[in-house]
Amino acid sequence: MKWVNLAAGAAMVAAGIVFTVMSGGIATPATEMLIASGIGMVIAGIGTLLSKGPLTGTTTTHRGTVDPWTIGYGRFATGGTMVYVGEWGVKNQWCDMVIVLAGHPCASVDA
User: Second label for 20, Cα 20 to 30 Å away, from 45, 54, 61, 66?
Assistant: First the structure.
């Protein structure tokens, strides 16, 4: 099922080209968006085909405001949930991030 994005994107590009030719070569905004989104899906499909699957043995931080609480016991590795990102300074040279690691007090964060 890895090839679905690639096939759907190729079909969208082809449909956009067909609609453009059928309209006498006048590309409407709808056909331009169809072709552009199809190209994006083709690129995503190629990336999916080249990937070896999800990473294992690592933790990742994801961005979201709502997430189930992580409850850890003993030493554990977690990526956390990024709940706030703020850039400031001249040309956004500084970045503030708030990452929630667990839903309870922790003795320490080692790394």
Answer: 45
Query: For the whole prediction, is pTM greater than 0.90?
Result: no
Read off the pLDDT of residues 45-99 as tens digits, 9 standing for 90 and up: 888 888 776 666 667 777 776 777 777 788 888 878 888 888 988 888 899 988 8
> Which residue in the block uniquely carries the two structure tokens 């699957």?
53
Q: CA–CA separation, 36 vs 17, rounded Å?
A: 11
What DSSP element (H or E) covers 86?
Answer: strand 81-88
Helix (H) or strand (E) holding 84: strand 81-88
| 94: enclosing H helix or E strand | strand 94-100
